[in-house]
Amino acid sequence: MTRREFLQLLALSGFGLVAPAGMLKGEGTGKKTPKKWAMVVDIFKCAKKEGCTECIEACHRIHNVPNIPDAGRQITWIWTSPFDALFPEQPAYVEALRGRQIMALCNHCENPPCVAVCPTKATFKRDDGIVMMDYHRCIGCRYCMAACPYGARSFNWQDPRPFIHAIDKGYPTRTKGVVEKCNFCDERLARGLVPACVDACKGTCLAFGDLNDEQSAVRRLLGSRPAMQRKPELGTRPKVFYLLA
Amino acid sequence: MIEKALKGGKGYRAWLLFLLAVAAAGFLSYLHQWSHGLSITGLSRSVSWGLYIANFTFFVGVAASAVTVVLPYYLHSVKEFGKITILGEFLAVPAVIMSLLFIIVDLGRPDRAFNLILYPSPQSLLFWDMIALNGYLLLNLFIGWSTLDAEVKDEKPLPWVRFLILLSLPWAVSIHTVTAFIYQGLVARPLWHTPLWAPRFLASAFASGPALLILMSLLIRRITRFDPGCGAIQKVATIATYALLVNIFLLLVELFTTLYGGVPGDVVHLRYLFLGIDGHHALVPWIWLSMVLMGGSAGALLSTRLRRREGVLALICAAIIVGVWIDKGLGLVVPGFIPSPLGEITEYGPTLPEVLITTGIWAFGVLIITLLYRIAIYVKLQEAE
Prior knowledge:
The complex is a heterodimer. Chain A is an alpha+beta fold. Chain A contains 9 helices and 10 strands. Chain A has a single domain, classed as Alpha-Beta Plaits (2-Layer Sandwich), CATH 3.30.70. Chain A has a 4-stranded mixed sheet. Chain B has one domain: Formate dehydrogenase/DMSO reductase domain (Formate dehydrogenase/DMSO reductase fold, Up-down Bundle), CATH 1.20.1630.10. Helices cover about 75% and strands about 0% of the residues of chain B. The radius of gyration of chain B is 21 Å and the shape is globular. Chain B starts with a helix and ends with a helix. The relative contact order of chain B is 0.17.
């Protein structure tokens, strides 16, 4: 073996050791796994708080959601529905929950039908799993409202501003003619805060976190307690989980 | 050729003025909607599509039905359709324009409609519908115009027009299939999430479109010297008969599958539509009227004796048009939303402004068809002399 051949062999062996070691560490150059935001709702605790609307009030206040008097035209980012309405195909074997009001919101599905049907991509799924709305691009065709199996979306049938009790300048208001829904408080997440609803519930019924983080509250809850989703058979893969026990 | 459309006697001008007046009333109503938003309609958070989209669905079908006269004439040399084909092609043009107008008036932000082109979204059926409808409009305008132009100049039509005519055949089927796919792709709406809507749409379109064409032909024969021909009208009536029977058959298939299976989430929409739920029964009289009109028309059409009497035929065609309009419009769009995904029942009824906008668009469509037919008939009569 010549000296040159020996040095080449040494170089190749060096690569052979370093490369697999880099792959073992993860994506090598510091690329982190994207977040996968999810929410866990403790149904029993939520059901016990009869008449409670703290999560709704907090969300609607900071997002300038108008208070429309016409019941058929309300805009709701979070609302409550009876257990049987949220889980109609379940046998409702939990007699204690029949008829009780439970909070519901956009499920930020992993396979969102609303994103698939939007003709302008005004609603889109971010890398961190949040299904977003671009209020400037929406043409108000309401196809996404038809496609949502959960009743999570609302439309501005008129100018919302006259119906906003106190405009919060930290978040835009919308115009008439666009669709809106829960955004998992992406503006708060960007500042390292939890969503307003989770904050307002003061740690009782709602947990929020990153499903890709094994240490997150949502992973620990889902790993230890049985939970269900709304209409899982549709294949939308919702990311709001409801604890059964 | 266009100047022929604007010349005419008192009756003709009065007709045009009447249509313009109704269209203007619709336009004023639309300005009201533009400034106040869609809150002036009867739509709600639960029933977010209504009269406008129902009309859109129906008129795409009428547009697609041009294929029922174009295909036999150009592909199978059914010479009897020689005079009626141009009427069919020129019926498709205002039908597509009306469909597009109904979508535009339904949009919350029509000023942003250009976003559909700036941000193409091939995963969305509305994107494909926009392409299919506009393409079909251009096709029919061009085909109709160039064949008429060729007749005026006493020449053969340009050779590649035949290619466009052949292209318009699968294109006609595709516009209505895409429209059906808008509904049947949605897992959220059990009433819509069935493969049957595409074939049902085509069947009901091939019944209502020809019915409209027959009514137009009978009317034209009365008020002008142009006669599309008894034979052609009877043949078109035959097509409408079979199409209507297929539509009824597919409806019965749908009813059996849903009701025999009995899945509550599926049955409840049909129960609301045909029987009402908990005192909510706004659509019940309409859907049963539609059943009677469609069933009665089918039965009457099967009798050759009745079909040949043109007064009766006109009534039958009117019944088919109304019956299919209800079945495909109100009977499809609204019950898809009732009950809502949360089990709530919010009924829908159009408001006066909504109806005015709708009739305004109808008037505009009839205006276009009046002008186009006047040109076509003038050319055809000249050619005959």
